[in-house]
Design goal:
about 110 residues, mainly alpha, 2 helices, about 45% helix, elongated
Length: about 110
C-alpha cells in the first residue's frame, strides 16, 4: 500500500514541477510564457486558456501532492504507541561484589 502511494506521490511531484515550470513568470524570466509565434511554445494554447489550464492543473496536483504526503505520514507511524523514557523502569545497576582481599594487579 505504501509503495503504491509513494509511486503516485513521485509522479505527482514530477508533474507538479513540470506545470510550475510551464507557467509564465511575472517577470518573463524563463521566456517560455507563450509569447507570439516565435518564442516559447509557438501558438499552443496562448493567452488566458493556458493560464487557466495551468493554474487549475497546478492547484489540482498540489491537492493530490498534499493528500499523498498526509497519507504517507499517517501510514508510516500511525499504529505505533507513543513511548516515554519516563515510563520505562530504571536500568538495573550491577553492584561489584565486596571481597576481603582486593584483586592483585596482573604482572606483565
Amino acid at each position: 500500500m505504501i509503495t503504491v502511494i509513494v509511486v503516485i506521490h513521485l509522479l505527482v511531484a514530477i508533474a507538479l514541477v513540470g506545470t510550475v515550470l510551464l507557467q509564465r513568470s511575472e517577470g518573463g524570466g524563463l521566456g517560455m510564457g507563450g509569447s507570439g509565434g516565435g518564442g516559447g511554445m509557438g501558438g499552443f494554447l496562448t493567452g488566458r486558456a493556458t493560464a487557466n489550464l495551468l493554474t487549475r492543473a497546478t492547484a489540482g496536483l498540489a491537492v493530490i501532492f498534499f493528500s499523498t504526503s498526509m497519507a504517507l505520514a499517517i501510514l508510516s507511524g500511525g499504529n505505533k504507541e507513543t513511548k516515554s523514557i519516563l515510563d520505562a523502569p530504571p536500568p538495573a545497576v550491577e553492584q561489584p561484589e565486596n571481597s576481603a582481599e582486593p584483586s592483585a594487579p596482573v604482572a606483565q
